[in-house]
Amino acid sequence: MNAAIISLLKAHFAARMRRIAKGFSSPRRILLSVMVVVLAFVWIGQTLASMLLRESFDPFAFRQWVSLPLMMYFGWHIVRVAWQRPVEPIEWSPEEEALIVGGPFHRYEVLLYRFAVILTATLPKVVMTTLVLWPDLSWSGPIGLMLALTFLELFRLVMDLATNCLSKRQYWGFRIALVGSVVWATLFAYQYGCRFAHSVGINSSHGLLTQGHTILSAVRNSPVVVFAETPFLMAADVVTGQGGPTWLLVKISGLCVLLFGQAWLILRLDQRLLAMARQPERSLWKAGHRSDLKRLVVLSSNRLPFVPKLGSLGPLIWRQSKRAKRYAGGLLVSMGIPAMLASVPLFSVPHPEVAFVVVVCGVLFYTFVLLPEAIKFDFRLDSDHLCQLKMLPMTSAKVVLGQLATPVVLACMFQFAMILFAGLFRGVSPVLMLGAMAVTLPLTVVFVALDNLVFLLYPHRPTQEGFEAFLRTILKFTGKSLLLVLAGAFLVLWAPIAASMAARTNFAVTTGFVFYSGLCLGIAALAVVSVRCVITAYERFDVSLDSV
């Protein structure tokens, strides 16, 4: 690797250390930094306690459960690029674009820098996983985890580069071939599992759960699946220490060969992608010599897209909605799968109102915990554009409202669709459906505002990885868990208060009306306070000090 890139990596590490130290010196961030450290010690303490107190897993079962997630993550990368082609084959930050990609370096030196970044981001994951699985690991366990996770990260890069090297027709052919392969594999697995179940005497009288378990076990042990799982079983053997030292060294060498093969393939795909990018330039140069430049002139009939005004909020909402449209495939996956899981109570709970409430609670829980990470078309994706946002001739309140509008609308569309489907499917009253929508709207504003508030107080890049991202995730999910506990405590306290208030009116109004009205007013007030906190944090955000 070039000496200048090595110096840049050292400077990047030193800057990260200074950034962490600044978190303790800044009065505005010291509370968050202390909370992160405390929660990290609590998490590590729980991990150490569970490591010392729990018993070791069965070696054979543990080996299978190590290889299965690796194989599933491998397949997920294939499905991900087939569902939606990556916009950029390799994601670079603006600083990396200026200093690395735009620097006087060979292309292979730039890719070596990328490999170094992948290794440094994988190392904290390996450390945390080693702590969790310490009783079940041998001396080769950390080595196997490092090789396996690096293999998956490099494979992700291979798939991103490979799909960007395909033409539109080739990409659609890849999609069709993948769908056909999935359908064939599903039919083959079902037929193979059914034949195996019939051979061992498992039939419909044993119940659906027993049949499903038998079929899945047969498919898992089938020759085709075992052959496809071979590299992941090899990594699992290294992680669990299966075999003698000689065989472990052989398997470690085999995994290293796979990593070097992936690195060579990445270099070749990157060269092909650069060659494809130069073809339009050559065509343009030839067209100029043939005096055919008129074909390359943009026609005057092409018009700029219509941007709604909506006061001064329209351009911000339009910009974020265009970004959301670009990731429509990922949004369908992130909302479709939870929608199917949340709809299960509609078929299993006999009482209609109870089933409806369970579905609404499940949708709200998903919206609170996971959905904001999938619809972060707001400040969280604008870490590189905060300077431009601060320069807009708009008040801070309008900027914040314009930035929060798109994720709130997307979440509400998901929630309202689930509420309407659940209500119409089980035949609940329209008043109950409208009441559920009235509660979910301000709650969604609270959820989205809290995530943006954390970002503005502790800014970070959307694709940032490593120990800082891990600690930030701990802080966020712990804070959300505490908020859920406080919300449950509020409901428990508010119920008797609402009953006593209804009794004082000599039952002129029902207890349910008082409870629901107070709940709606409380959530609406919380939404206003949350948005006001985001506006204050945005006003105090100093681009020269807080930008990432």
Give a quick rundown of the structure:
This protein has 548 residues and is mostly helical. Helices cover 78% and strands 0% of the residues.
SSE inventory with pairings:
Layout: H1 3-25, H2 30-53, H3 59-83, H4 94-101, H5 107-132, H6 141-164, H7 168-199, H8 208-220, H9 223-228, H10 230-240, H11 245-289, H12 314-326, H13 328-342, H14 345-348, H15 352-369, H16 371-374, H17 386-391, H18 396-426, H19 430-457, H20 467-504, H21 511-540, H22 543-546
Helix pairs in contact: 2-20, 3-6, 3-10, 5-6, 5-11, 6-10, 6-11, 7-8, 10-11, 12-18, 15-18, 15-19, 18-19, 18-21, 19-21, 20-21
Structural account:
The protein is mainly alpha-helical and 548 residues long. The protein folds into three domains: 1-54; 59-279, no CATH class; 315-546, no CATH class. 78% of the residues lie in helices and 0% in strands. The chain contains 22 helices and no strands. It has helices spanning 3-25, 30-53, 59-83, 94-101, 107-132, 141-164, 168-199, 208-220, 223-228, 230-240, 245-289, 314-326, 328-342, 345-348, 352-369, 371-374, 386-391, 396-426, 430-457, 467-504, 511-540, 543-546. α6 runs parallel beside α11 and α20 (467-504) packs antiparallel against α21 (511-540). The chain is globular, with a radius of gyration of 27 Å. 21% of the residues are buried. The model is unreliable at 287-301 (pLDDT under 50).
The arrangement of helices and strands along the chain is HHHHHHHHHHHHHHHHHHHHHH
Report the biggest beta sheet as strand number plus sense, adding barrel if it closes: none
Structural class: mainly alpha
3D shape: globular
Strand content: under 5%
Count of discrete alpha- or pi-helical segments spanning 4 or more residues: 22
Multimeric state: single chain
**Radius of gyration based on Cα positions:** 27 Å
Average of per-residue pLDDT values: 78
Q: Ranges with pLDDT <50 over ≥5 residues?
A: 287-301
Measure the end-to-end span: 26 Å
- Percentage of helical residues? over 70%
Q: How many structural domains does the protein architecture include?
A: 3
Q: Could you give the count of β-strands?
A: 0
